[in-house]
């Protein structure tokens, strides 16, 4: 009889003044990303990559993390630690995991990648092909990865697993810049991924700078995948600006032939349009900003409001990725006007005027 694969496990006991309050906040957060069950002082969170069981005791929150493999477990530990430390920031609690996942070892969801090809897709979008080993996990589980971009002239030093489950980074001078990108294509057999970079000027743009200047042989780090995709449906709304084009392109290529997709894409002008392949039936409109600066137009949110939705009982799903203000407007429209449930839509702020990197995703206070 074949041996059943074991799950990977870790646990932590975290000293907190109000453990049940922190547990409730964790559960409230993860409702959007999985299934949550609360029974008095105990709770359980189940997500696509693993689960966490919690028990609020006197002055202590006991957490048990579980994943089907090392990477899944690492994601659970990372997610719990990041949000718990945020919710209990005034106490700055110590988190030390016991069990699987050794401290100081390479992150199981990290890969070192090498540039093997570059090509221009449009005047302001460049495709960079990266090669690496053991990329099976990057073909499923989310559209997005984090790129770790070495700074000019600096030999890269990559993060390792920290005691609290979060990455332990090298010293500041060796720490790479980190930006989130979409995996436009994943070829597991060839060990390659394509990433499309929007080229734009300005300070604090390490991703755009890398996309513009990448040469064959350049080395970067990659962690992931993560981020949501689309749920099974009969009718889709896909909306975004040029930063979301790689995700929209990949989603469309994976839709079945009996699906219908309404697609609204904001770009600078006609030169930034690109072919979109799909087996699904398509209704595509390109929205040109022309002389309006990125992030200052309402073209996308206006177009989403004008979309005609099915009037029958077809399953619907809406996906959008764009600048923060458009994200807020589109999400509000889908939830309040269209009455979509959390399972029927996913709207993401890909960037935010005046902010860098992950700060695009932080809600205003």
User: What is the string of SSEs from the N terminus onward?
Assistant: EHEEEEHEEEEEEEEEHEEHEEHEHE
Distance between the termini: 57 Å
Radius of gyration: 21 Å
The name of the CATH architecture of the largest domain is 3-Layer(aba) Sandwich
The CATH superfamily of the largest domain appears as Nucleotide-binding domain of ferredoxin-NADP reductase (FNR) module
pLDDT < 50 stretches = none
**What is the global morphology?**
globular
User: Hey, roughly how much beta strand do the residues contain?
Assistant: 35-45%
Kindly report the average pLDDT value. Answer: 93
Which CATH class of the largest domain applies here? Alpha Beta
Oligomerization state: single chain
| Main sheet specs | 7 strands, antiparallel
Secondary-structure-based class equals alpha+beta
Number of helices: 6
Q: Give the number of domains.
A: 3
For the secondary structure, the number of strands is 20
* CATH fold call of the largest domain: Rossmann fold
* Strand adjacency order, main sheet: 12-9-15-7-8-14-13
Helix content: 10-25%
């Amino acid at each position: 009889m074949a041996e059943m694969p074991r799950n990977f496990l870790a646990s932590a006991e975290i000293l907190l003044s109000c453990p049940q309050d922190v547990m409730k906040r964790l559960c409230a957060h993860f409702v959007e990303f999985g299934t949550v069950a609360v029974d008095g002082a105990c709770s359980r969170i189940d997500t696509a990559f693993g689960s966490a069981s919690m028990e609020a005791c006197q002055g202590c929150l006991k957490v048990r993390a579980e994943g089907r493999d090392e990477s899944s477990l690492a994601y659970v530990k990372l997610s719990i630690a990041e949000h718990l430390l945020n919710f209990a920031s005034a106490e700055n609690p110590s988190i030390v995991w016991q069990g699987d996942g050794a401290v100081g070892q390479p992150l199981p969801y990290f890969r070192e990648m090498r540039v093997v090809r570059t090509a221009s897709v449009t005047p302001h979008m460049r495709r960079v092909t990266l090669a690496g080993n053991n990329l099976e996990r990057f073909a499923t589980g989310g559209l997005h990865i984090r790129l770790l971009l070495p700074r000019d002239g600096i030999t890269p030093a990559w993060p390792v697993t920290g005691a609290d489950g979060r990455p332990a980074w090298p010293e500041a001078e060796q720490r790479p810049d980190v930006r989130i990108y979409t995996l436009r294509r994943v070829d597991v057999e060839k060990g390659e991924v394509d990433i499309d970079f929007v080229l734009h000027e300005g300070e604090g743009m390490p991703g755009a700078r890398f996309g513009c200047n990448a040469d064959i042989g350049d080395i970067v780090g990659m962690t992931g995948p993560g981020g949501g995709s689309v749920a099974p449906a009969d009718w889709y709304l896909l909306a975004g600006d040029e930063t979301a084009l790689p995700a929209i392109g990949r989603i469309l290529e994976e839709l079945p032939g009996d699906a219908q997709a309404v697609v609204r894409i904001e770009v600078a002008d006609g030169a930034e349009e690109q072919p979109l392949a799909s087996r699904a039936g398509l209704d595509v409109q390109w929205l040109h900003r022309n002389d309006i600066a990125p992030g200052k137009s309402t073209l996308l949110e206006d177009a989403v409001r004008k979309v005609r939705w099915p009037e029958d009982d077809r399953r619907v799903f809406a996906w959008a990725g764009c600048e923060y203000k458009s994200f807020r407007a589109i999400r509000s429209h889908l939830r309040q006007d269209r009455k979509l449930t959390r399972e029927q839509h996913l709207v993401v702020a890909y960037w935010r005027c005046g902010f860098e990197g992950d700060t695009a995703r932080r809600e205003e206070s």
